[in-house]
Amino acid sequence: MSETQGLTIGELESKYFLYRKALKQLLLEGRPVARIEKTLAWSRLTTLHNCLPRQYKSPDHIRHQLLREIEQQQQAEQA
To answer: What is the reported pTM?
Structure first.
């Protein structure tokens, strides 16, 4: 957890949507899950989930949500 050293939970919370957006961009680029799990965004989302599990879903759960969103957007574009 050395990469979060010096960051407060409040700072992590304020950037939640940026981490989520970064994760979505990685998914849109087609990056493999193993590489996504090594990113700063994934690490910060994991930290938020571990500290506040009732408020923040796990990064894996968020990844599945985003994949569904992307799939729905692609289907809407094709229609």
So the answer is: 0.88
